[in-house]
Amino acid sequence: MPSVRIRENEPFEIALRRFKRGCEKAGILTETRRREFYEKPTAMRKRKDAAATKRHKRKVSMSAIRKKPPYKKF
């Protein structure tokens, strides 16, 4: 859990913004949303497999775009 010490003469809004940024970097909100409801192990596996497939497809398509030779006029 991120902690923030309020500096001398620091407005509360700035300290709150620093705290929110720390929570975002630590991934607390995404973790709580993920754990909000129980997810069956099979559903978890299915979601992870789908994410891996999506990453692989994106990687393949990006490598195909990069390998394409530049257009040349003759």
Describe what you observe in this structure:
The protein is mainly alpha-helical and 74 residues long. Helix content is 66%, strand content 0%. It has one domain (1-55). It is built from three helices and no strands. The longest helix is centred in the last third of the chain and has 27 residues, at 41-67. It is flat, with a radius of gyration of 22 Å.
Keywords:
single chain, 74 residues, mainly alpha, 3 helices, 0% strand, flat
Q: What is the helix/strand order? A: HHH
Count of the domains: 1
The dominant shape is flat
Q: Termini distance?
A: 62 Å
Rounded average pLDDT? 90
Q: Helix proportion of residues, in percent? A: 55-70%
Put simply, the count of helices is 3
| Low-pLDDT regions | none
Tally of strands: 0
Summary?
The chain is mainly alpha-helical and 74 residues long.
Ordered list of secondary-structure elements with their pairings:
Elements: H1 12-26, H2 28-34, H3 41-67
